[in-house]
Specification:
The complex is a heterodimer of chains A (222) and B (238). Chain A has 222 residues and is mainly α. Chain A has nine helices and no strands. Chain B has 238 residues and is mostly helical. In chain B, helix 2 runs antiparallel to helix 8, helix 4 crosses helix 6 and helix 5 packs antiparallel against helix 7. Classes of the chains: A mainly alpha (222), B mainly alpha (238).
C-alpha cells in the first residue's frame, strides 16, 4: 500500500469512528455554543462591545474546546488499536499524517458549526468572508498537528488529560495571534498577508516536525 | 587551591556577577527613568539566558534523537530547568520595573504575554518529564516536545516588532556606551552563571540516573510475584 493510500485509510478510519458517534457536532459544538452564550453574561451584554470582542472570544472557545476534540481522538486510539495498526505495517509518518488530517477536519467542523452561533449572538464584523474561509482551515490544521504531536507524546500516560492541554494551549499562541490579528486586519481593511504567512509557517513547521518525530513517537508508545 | 581548580567555573561566575552588580549600581542612572532602570541589568541578561537555555534544550533534544546517548537528554532537561528559572526571573524583574514606569505590574503587552506563555510551555515540558517513569521513553517523548516548544522563541523575540507595543524594541544601537557596556557585562556574568548551574545540574542528573538504576536493580520483587496461576483443568476425569 502506498504512503498516501495509508494516510487516506487512517484518515478514513478516524472520521468513520467520529461519524458513528458524531461527538464533535452533537456534544462538543453545543458545549462551545453554550460557552459563547454564557460569556456575555459574565462580561456584560453591551451589543457594540460584544460585536468587537466576538471574534476574539470565538477563537478562545475554539482553542479551549478544541482540546476536547484533540483529547477525544487520543482517547479513542487505545493500545489494541495502535498495536493493530502497527501490525498492519502502516508507516508511522502515514499514521501521524492521517491522524492529523482527521483531527484538523474535526476541528474545522467544530469551527464551522460555531460560526453561525457567533454571528447570531455577537454580530461581528468579519470584513471579508472568503478570507475567513482561508483562516479557519489554517488554524484547524495547526491545532490538528499540534494536538496530534501532543497526543502522541502523552499517549498511555496517567496524566494525559491534564498534561495534553498544558502542552497544547500555550504552544497554540501563534495560531491564536495569527487568527485574531488577521480578522482584525480584515476589519480595518489592512493586508492580512503577514498573518496568513505566520499561520502557514507554523503549520509547515509543525507538519515537518510531526512527520520527522513520528517514528521516535511510535517507539515511545510501544 | 585544588577546590578552586575544581570549582573554577563557579568562581569565575561569582566574580563576574560581583563585577556586574558593582557596575550596575555605580554606572550613571538613566536620565528619564532614574535608578529604576538598573533593573534592566538583571532583566535583559535573564531573558537572554532563558533563550540560550531553551536553545541548548533543542540541541540536546536533537542530539538525543540522533545518537540515543543519555547525556544529550540530561543536557536538554537540565538546560530547560535553568531556562524556566531565568524566564521566571525575567518576568519578575520586568514586573518590578513596570510598576513605577508603566504604573502597573502587568500590561497586556505582546512581549510580556508571549514570555509568560513560554514559561508555561517549558513548565509543560518539565511536567511531561515527571509524568514518564521509564528513562528511555521519557527521553524520547521530551526530545520531541523540546523541539516543538522552540517554535515559540522566535515569536517571543519578534513580538515587539510584529505588534507595536509598550515594550522597548532592541536597544543595541540607541543606548549610551556606559549603559551598553554594563548590560553586556551582565549578559556575560549571567552566561557564566548559566554554565556553572548547568555543569552542576548535569552532574546531579547523572547521579540521579545512577541512583534510579541502582534502585531498580535492588528493588524487591513486586507483591504477589511469587504466586503462580493454578494449572488449568483438562476436564478429564482423574
Amino acid at each position: 500500500m502506498s504512503f498516501w493510500r495509508q494516510v487516506f485509510e487512517i484518515t478514513r478510519k478516524d472520521l468513520l469512528v467520529e461519524s458513528r458517534t458524531a461527538e464533535v457536532v452533537t456534544m462538543t459544538a453545543p458545549f462551545g455554543a453554550a460557552a459563547l452564550i454564557l460569556i456575555p453574561l459574565a462580561i456584560g451584554t453591551d451589543a457594540p462591545l460584544l460585536s468587537d470582542l466576538g471574534p476574539g472570544l470565538y477563537w478562545i472557545v475554539v482553542l479551549l474546546f478544541g482540546m476536547l476534540v484533540i483529547l477525544r481522538k487520543s482517547a479513542v486510539d487505545g493500545q489494541p488499536q495502535r498495536d493493530l495498526v502497527r501490525l498492519l505495517g502502516i508507516d508511522p509518518a502515514a499514521r501521524f499524517a492521517g491522524a492529523a488530517i482527521a483531527t484538523s477536519a474535526l476541528i474545522f467542523t467544530f469551527e464551522l458549526v460555531l460560526i453561525p452561533v457567533l454571528i447570531v449572538l455577537y454580530n461581528p464584523d468579519f470584513g471579508s468572508w472568503p478570507w475567513l474561509m482561508l483562516i479557519l482551515p489554517l488554524v484547524a490544521i495547526g491545532m490538528g498537528l499540534l494536538g496530534t504531536i501532543a497526543g502522541g507524546v502523552t499517549t498511555g500516560l496517567g496524566t494525559r488529560v491534564s498534561l495534553t492541554p498544558l502542552l497544547v494551549v500555550p504552544l497554540s499562541l501563534p495560531l491564536l495571534l495569527g487568527a485574531t490579528q488577521a480578522l482584525e486586519s480584515l476589519r480595518l481593511g489592512r493586508s492580512i498577508l503577514p498573518w496568513l504567512v505566520l499561520l502557514m509557517a507554523v503549520d509547515l513547521a509543525l507538519a515537518v516536525t510531526g512527520v520527522l518525530a513520528a517514528r521516535p513517537l511510535e517507539e515511545a508508545v510501544t | 587551591m585544588t577546590a578552586l581548580r575544581r570549582h573554577w567555573l563557579e568562581t569565575v561566575a561569582a566574580v563576574a556577577v560581583a563585577l556586574s552588580l558593582f557596575r550596575s549600581m555605580t554606572v550613571a542612572a538613566d536620565v528619564t527613568q532614574g535608578d529604576v532602570q538598573r533593573i534592566m541589568y538583571v532583566h535583559v541578561p535573564s531573558a537572554w539566558l532563558a533563550f540560550l537555555a531553551f536553545a541548548v534544550t533543542v540541541v540536546g533534544s536533537v542530539g538525543w534523537l540522533r545518537t540515543r546517548d543519555r547525556r544529550w537528554d540530561r543536557l536538554a532537561a537540565s538546560s530547560a530547568e535553568i531556562g524556566v528559572v531565568f524566564t521566571g526571573l525575567a518576568i519578575l524583574a520586568g514586573m518590578i520595573w513596570a510598576r513605577p514606569v508603566w504604573g502597573q505590574f502587568w500590561t497586556w503587552e505582546p512581549r510580556l504575554v508571549t514570555t509568560a506563555l513560554l514559561f508555561f510551555i517549558y513548565l509543560g515540558y518539565l511536567a511531561l518529564r515527571r509524568a514518564v517513569i521509564d528513562p528511555e521513553q521519557r527521553a524520547r517523548r521530551s526530545a520531541i516536545m523540546g523541539i516543538v516548544a522552540f517554535i515559540q522563541i522566535p515569536i517571543v523575540y519578534e513580538s515587539v516588532n510584529w505588534w507595536r507595543s509598550l515594550h522597548q524594541t532592541s536597544s543595541r544601537n540607541s543606548i549610551d556606551t556606559p549603559l551598553r557596556v554594563t548590560l553586556l557585562l551582565g549578559v556575560v556574568a549571567f552566561t557564566f552563571v548559566y554554565a556553572a548551574l548547568l555543569q552542576r545540574r548535569l552532574e546531579l542528573a547523572r547521579l540521579e540516573e545512577e541512583l534510579e538504576i541502582r534502585h531498580l536493580d535492588s528493588s524487591p520483587e513486586v507483591a504477589g510475584a511469587g504466586i503462580t496461576a493454578p494449572a488449568l483443568s483438562t476436564g478429564e476425569p482423574r
